[in-house]
Structure formats: structure tokens, C-alpha cells
Amino acid sequence: MHNQDNPAAPVRFLEGDRVYLRPIGLDDTDLYFRMLFHPEVRRLTGTQKSFTREQISRYIEGKTQDPSSLLLLIALRETDEVIGDIALQNIDGMNRNANIRIAITSQEHQGRGLGTEAMRLLLDYGFGILNLHRIELNVFSYNARAIRAYEKLGFQREGVQREALYYNHQYHDSIIMSILEDEYRAKHVKKHV
Question: What is the pTM of this model?
Fold first, then answer.
């Protein structure tokens, strides 16, 4: 039975080999609330604030109504386990650019290429469906593994916001990286003959 034929199965919006991306809904509030309190995820994303369940519910509701944002959950194809989230934000149709962000919530799923696969799925959607020209991200200087993964995807460093984040008693740089549609296509899209 195909996953899509089962009404109880999660919708698979963008599907890869090992992960798929699905829409987030209000029924994901508790799951998303717990994800936001994972200590390592908070450190890697520079999350400083505490949130209530009600704030998360309002945030999800707002994101689902915001045409300039696409917030998706990352799930494993085999088990439907949610392992993180990914978003295209500040989608600007006039200038054809957006910001992308990702968080993989548990260390057991980090460093296995799952985040890279999720990024490829959303980049492909951004450039191939939304017709974006440029997608950027910010990454903190202490997140070396993410920086390497972004560079392997084809992102280039554009600049540094010096000491932009205060976390764990010290300031950290935020690195701005981007990829353009032609760079993405040259590296990841097979030519149709």
C-alpha cells in the first residue's frame, strides 16, 4: 500500500531517498515544542529564548498563514520519525531570493547526510518550482560541520557579521552564505537531453 493511499499517513510534500519533508500543523505543537528545547539544537541554532506551548502553537499557525515562509518537518522515509525542521523564509518574489534554515534535532541523526538531503530537496523546490535566483543562510562560526555541509552543497561565504551572537558567555560570528540558481543547477541538476 502506498503511503499516500493511507489517510492516516503523513503527507510527503518533498520526498528524497531517506527523508521527506512534510507540512507542519497545529497537531505538531507538542512535538515542535519539545524540539525547541533540545540543548544541542539550541546551541547550534543560537536559540536564546524560552517558549511556552501556546507561543509555539501561535507561531505554527502564523507560519502556515505566511506566504513568504515555508516551514516543513523533516521525517525519515522508513519510520515517519520527525528528525528536524527546515524552512524557506523571507521569500521575496520581486528579487527572487529567500533565506533557508535547518535543524536536525538529535545527534544520532546528525553527520549522516540526512540534513544535506533535506537541504537538497528544499533548494530544488526553491530554484525549480518557486523560481528563486538566490538562497542565503546564516551559520554560527562554531558550527564547523554545518559550514562544511553547506560548502559541499555549493554555498559560498559572502561575509561575516562579527560577534553577532552572544551565547554561553561569549560572542560568536555569524557567517552569511548563499547559492545562486545557476550554481545550484550546475552542481545538482542533470541536463535533460
Answer: 0.89
